Amino acid sequence: MKKIIFLMIMVIAASIVFSLGIAPAMRITVVQGENTIYEALEANFTGDPTLGASPLQVQFTDKSVGEPTSWAWYFGDESFEKPWTKMTRGAEWRTRRGHTSVVMADGSIVLMGGFDGPHRLSDVWRSTDQGTSWKRMVSFAPWSGRRDHASVALPDGSILLMGGFDTHVRNDIWRSMDQGATWTLITAAAEWAARRNFSTAVLPDASIVVMGGFDGASRLNDVWRSTNNGATWTQMTNNALWTGRDGHSSIALPDNSIVLIGGFDFTSYPHHLNDVWRSTDLGVNWTLMTDDPSWEGRFQHTSVLLPDNSILLIGGAGYALRNDIWRSHDHGKSWIQVTSAAKWTERMSHTSVMLHDGSIVLMGGTDNFDRNDVWRSTDLGATWEQMNTAIPWTAKSKHSSVVLPDGSIVIMGGFYFRDVFRRQNDVWRSPDGGITWSLMTVYAEWTKRSGHSSVALADGSILLMGGFDDNWRNDVWRSMDQGATWTQVTDSAEWLGRHAHSSVILPDGDIVLMGGSSPAPQNDVWHSSDQGASWVQVSPAAPWAPRYDHTSVALPDGSIVLMGGYDGASRCNDVWLSTDKGTNWTQMTPVADWTARLQHISVALPDGSILLIGGFDGSDRNDVWRSTDQGTTWTQTTETAPWTARSGHTSVVLLDGRIILIGGDYNDGGFKHLNDVWQLETARSAEKNPLHTYHAPGNYSVTLQVHDPAGFSAIIKEGYITVTDPKPTPEPPDPDGFELFLPMILK
Fold first, then answer.
1. Helix (H) and strand (E) counts for the chain?
2. Quick check: 426 and 400 in contact, CB under 8 A?
3. What is this structure's pTM?
4. Nearest to 112 by CA among 78, 82, 73, 143
5. Collapsing DSSP states into helix, strand and coil, what is residue 737?
6. Angle made by CA atoms 433, 439, 442, in degrees to the nearest 5
7. With contact defined as beta carbons under 8 Å apart, do 612 and 587 qualify?
8. Nearest-CA neighbor of 341 among 365, 359, 305, 314?
9. Digit-coded pLDDT (tens) for 518-569
């Protein structure tokens, strides 16, 4: 087999095309194998006709040199009113662990409370389609936000929620008669001691049994039973034969017996238990079924009862997190492994339920990162289907992202909040517009950081600059393999260490870095023409106020537009333009139409327009604004996008003109991070030779961007289409003024 080597060569200005003010386009040439060179890609097109009255139908024809594989057309009359599409998501509820879930008589699933990192939750969600989509029943139930509680579905269709931890261990009991929408307090203090991480079972006679748990000081082995929906409780035993424990699971069998499985006992060794016990007298007495099953000791696993009365044990944590599944046909005495590694990640503190159709649904949990993915098995746990497309990387903000010449997206670093702010140096790549992601490295060679910037170079490499890792950094790193490995270009660039700055790459490959926090706000501008190895200060003090958390874009003509940010005292909404690589600046507007803000994003589209998206103006925003005149004036294209209002997010423009919005954070009474991905299509057509109709009179610039596996090329023809007023409709003849002329015949 012939070995193929790809050599990426940057060709500066070799394929820059000009036509009526066309912007330059970066071009990559690929040399393959033995001197086999792809034909250079050069965008071009024609339209017929280019002049006419409204409505004017124009046939556009691609005349590009080379063999483009995709086309993105902008006809100049775009309204940008297409809806945003969520590319990938977890469930509608936040990532969490320590929650509970039950199956209702109608087959729906109800999920309650839990812990998302910084907060204990009291929200309730319901799914009627096996976990694919979820409806919020209540944002804040009357019971306190909590984790490690228990809940059961009773035969009358009500739900009981019991105990848990909300800064203190609890023993209150709440009941909902309407699938979790409203709740009534049954008792503020049940007879059993307040506790968390206990187990419950509903017996065939509708009585409820509570077993073990942790009361904040010790692990318990008592058993309690209620025959009146949790209003009062009777102690069945204060000292069961099994040791005090928490994080165990229990199952009620159809014969009225109870099976208790595993858990955690700090006083024993090993602490992670794998014993199985059974009671046939409502929890008074217990028989050891096995203390040496085939599976390793574990806690915070789940177990479900299958239609054939066998028991399934799912995941959990012992000396390591697990995603194995085991099955017992004899009340827990012996076990057979169903799978050693399910498709979902190893985890603990998840929940699982069995639906009426015999399928099993697993929800959330933690695999060192809290999750909100949902999985379903229809073959008793052997194989699993993901019911939603969850993001594998941690919700984050202040990360960076780039688009590579092959159209893939790479995101780098950032930070998230879990009790404290935690920075990251992980790198992820998506080849399909953000739908699926591959981990390139868990720990890059650069330190964990946030507020850095990054650019993609023409040769496909990535440059990462500065940021904050408890110190303000001025190092520069480069990856030649899509973020998998990194080489330090310089450990101390000429500019001060900083974060929350902005940087752009120009059409000629030069890089410009602007402003930031060092920690004082900065307004210096630096330029590198050697891929970040050395830097020249082109402006020590630009005319715009020192600032950070601003944005900047490079337009197709090589000019730079800088927008908004924070100057240390107030948020800004001024816009500045530089046409000489950051040396000199012109104020385009002192007060843009959008509110003064920081931590927004902005992108330059192939047609030369700018989109500004979201940010923080005192509140998180999800509005979208567009400028077609280098930032002088702005039109709001979307007042309220469907994605959560946010700041600290990133965005990239794919080669086909799609905008991808990634992550960020928001505050709704608590600081929360996001890991959702959204897409907005901006091109009017992706056809090779589209037919387009102009309805409004005016002059229209037309843009075509084409790309192939090697890169892209774009062309803008300014004022290419002229549409005049509609032709007047001829007046019909007046029947009252109609004259008839007949020939005169003379004899």
1. 0, 58
2. no
3. 0.67
4. 143
5. helix
6. 140
7. no
8. 314
9. 999 999 999 999 999 999 999 999 999 999 999 999 999 999 999 999 999 9
